[in-house]
Write a structure and sequence with these properties.
This protein has 7 helices and 2 strands, in the order αααααααββ. With 203 residues, the chain is mostly helical. The protein has a domain of 81 residues. The C terminus is likely disordered.
């Protein structure tokens, strides 16, 4: 009596030999039970595992997402829960890219990156924090007579600065000359009150 031949997949499974490559496809006319069903199941498992191992597209390294550049949309800013390390890293990467482009002499890239820095939400956050929380003169009012010493005030200032960053027009300073010891004069620019523009003279 001839010995019954077993499929290769079953022989590998019985002997413990690892399967290399896809298992043989089972014919469509095989029954749903027995060796045919097992072969179909092994083929399906092999196909799913191959799909899981495919490389998935990744974001370019150093790329900033939209929220980090443009800021949150329609969400109130909570100053006390801001991830400062992440925002400082974003500003540091932008500065490094500007430095690298400048060193290479790629001036169009420098201008583009500088515009990106000015529109950066992370840059606005770090700048306002530096002026209102870290600097020694944080308790001294500016020309507008306002200070931001509490967390809600700082958060409101960040949102206001970021919204008006494109339409902001700096005012000229008042030029005053101070006499020095050797007889010469040192020019000094004094910021003027925005509500009293007539006092300012062109620098």
């Amino acid at each position: 009596m001839p010995k019954k031949r077993t499929p290769a997949a079953e022989r590998r499974q019985e002997t413990g030999t690892p399967m290399v490559g896809p298992p043989p496809a089972a014919p469509d006319n095989w029954p749903d039970t027995g060796p045919g069903a097992r072969l179909r199941k092994q083929a399906d498992v092999w196909q799913v595992s191959c799909e899981d191992e495919r490389p998935k597209p990744t974001e370019p390294k150093g790329k900033l997402d939209t929220m980090q550049v443009n800021g949150p949309e329609g969400a109130a800013l909570d100053w006390d829960t801001v991830d400062w390390r992440a925002h400082e890293d974003n500003v540091r990467r932008l500065r490094q890219r500007i430095f690298t482009a400048t060193k290479k002499g790629d001036w169009p890239a420098v201008r583009t990156l500088q515009k990106l820095m000015l529109r950066s939400w992370s840059n606005t956050l770090v700048s306002v924090r530096q002026v209102t929380q870290r600097n020694a003169g944080r308790k001294t009012a500016g020309v507008d007579g306002e200070v931001a010493l509490t967390s809600p005030d700082r958060a409101e200032l960040v949102v206001q600065v970021h919204r008006t960053i494109r339409s902001w027009q700096p005012l000229p300073v008042k030029r005053v000359y101070i006499p020095k010891a050797h007889g010469r004069q040192r020019p000094l620019g004094i910021p003027t009150d925005p509500s009293n523009r007539g006092v300012a003279s062109a620098a």
